[in-house]
Design goal:
alpha+beta; 8 helices; 33% helix
């Protein structure tokens, strides 16, 4: 199973008696399988399972490209959306932050290029449609001719942050939220950094914050990896892993950092508030590029 294809939430160190309730729940989430494991007093666990299911459904309904009825799919199909839901507004604001922080390397308008490469079509017209600056994302949403958006580089991290907030408000912890991007409440939790070619490259122990890992070669689009530079920039790294205070930030940065040189990564990481950046280069060598 792909690391982006499941969610596990484990309140492993919950100091509850043996009779405490255990709620498990499995469904689909953001194109993959969602597995929920909550431990604590039964009533609290049941309430949390309901709240988490509703939160995941809210993000899916807003931003899933797998659902033709989602708000994002409707925007892509028609080029406009007059009353976008809260989760889509949140994700677009986060996308704008990532675009500015990374000097435009994080660009949600690469979706037509992604589709063209995936289907073996001529990518010329798709490349011409790329440009976040041509998207009207505040108020009513409007796309320029030929444009479409993907928020797949943010949605998992955003959803993990929303779930973490629910757990925190309900008094849970330590807890690990794993949607392919990790959010941590308490701990310690030991997490791995994996590369598609090299396998497990490092382990990290987190007691808070978040970690996200991106690998361009984890999915192929013809001869290209699935992380695309808006101006045709090739990936600089086989894998990049980012630790940050929250998962949405780590998710977006790990995506864009795959396209950036080491010096630029360090500068952006410092401005963004990331705490650590680790990477595997094309030759399979692992290194730590930034520590705050």
């Amino acid at each position: 199973m792909n690391r982006r294809r499941f969610l596990t939430i484990t309140a492993a160190a919950w100091a509850a008696p043996a009779s405490a309730g255990v709620t498990t729940w499995q469904s689909t989430a953001l194109g993959g399988t969602l597995l929920l494991d909550l431990r604590g007093p039964r009533a609290l666990s049941a309430d949390l399972a309901t709240g988490i299911a509703a939160t995941i459904e809210e993000v899916e309904a807003a931003a899933s490209l797998f659902r033709p009825e989602s708000a994002l799919s409707q925007l892509n199909a028609t080029g406009r959306l007059d009353d976008p839901p809260r989760a889509l507004r949140d994700l677009l604001a986060l996308a704008d932050d990532m675009h500015r922080l990374t000097g435009g390397l994080f660009d949600p308008t690469v979706q037509p290029l992604w589709q063209a490469l995936a289907m073996g079509r001529d990518p010329a017209s798709a490349r011409a449609a790329i440009g976040w600056d041509r998207v009207q994302w505040q108020g009513a949403l409007r796309l320029d001719t030929g444009q479409a958006l993907t928020l797949n580089g943010l949605a998992q991290g955003y959803a993990a942050d929303r779930v973490a907030a629910l757990l925190r408000q309900a008094g849970y912890g330590p807890a690990l939220i794993d949607m392919g991007e990790f959010a941590v409440l308490g701990g310690p939790f030991r997490l791995g950094v994996e590369d598609p070619e090299g396998g497990l490259m490092a382990t990290r122990t987190l007691t808070g914050g978040a970690m996200a890992t991106s690998s361009p070669g984890a999915m192929r689009l013809g001869m290209s990896g699935h992380i695309l530079g808006p101006q045709g920039q090739p990936p600089r790294w086989s894998t990049v892993s980012v630790e940050a205070p929250w998962a949405g930030l780590a998710d977006g940065l790990s995506t864009a950092f795959c396209l950036m040189e080491a010096d630029a990564i360090g500068a952006v990481a410092a401005r963004a508030g990331a705490t650590r950046v680790m990477a595997v280069d094309a030759g399979g060598d692992f290194s730590t590029l930034f520590v705050s």
